[in-house]
Design a protein that fits this description.
Residues 1-63 form the HTH dtxR-type domain. The protein has helices spanning 4-17, 25-32, 36-48, 64-86, 95-102, 108-118, 166-174, 213-216, and strands spanning 52-53, 61-62, 155-161, 182-188, 195-200, 206-211, 219-223. By secondary structure, it is an alpha+beta fold.
Amino acid sequence: MNSQTEENYLKALFKLASQENEINLSELSKKLSVSTPTANSMIKRLYEKEFVIYEKYKPIKLTEKGRKEAALIVRKHRLTEMFLVEKMGFGWEKVHAIAEQIEHIKSPIFFDKMDELLGYPDIDPHGSPIPNKEGQIENLVHSELRLSDCKQGDKIKIVAVSESSLELLQFLNSRKISLGLEVEILEIEKYDGTMKVLLSEENNKSREETLSKIVCEKLYVIQKK
């Protein structure tokens, strides 16, 4: 049985590996807010359990066993977030910390029932894909296109956020920006990438908003057809 700390490392490795197949030890330690020697010690333990491929001074890679184990932890976390939002009425900015605790419950049938009650969702409240029971992501539910990649005149829809930090989600809430919102880019400031956008609301209403490049980089979008 894996410890909570081991599971937290596996989850961090999974998220870093989704960006790059090879994971740098310093990146891992930064993501987990631990020292490099501390991270190195845990990686050795995960290597002994055959969860990672590890050689001194070389990037870390998840084995197939490690990738599946990590994906199942991510599955529990994202299912929990969705359950808290859809069935318990929590705001999307409040669920991450709670899911961090619940994801360590060992009972598979608990999460299978949660999945069933939710109607087998593909994504969590932040737009991230939920792995299935085999640890596979069946459908990539959003592109890797970010709002900051778009051009003036583009019409897009927000489909995910790149992180679920309290600060980002509270900011988006304050601007009434959520997944599914349709956006037209009116202007882009050449100097710093700030965007003036038109946000479409219900009842055919719309409003203008100015978003910094930092925020635009954290919003995944798809082009409207």
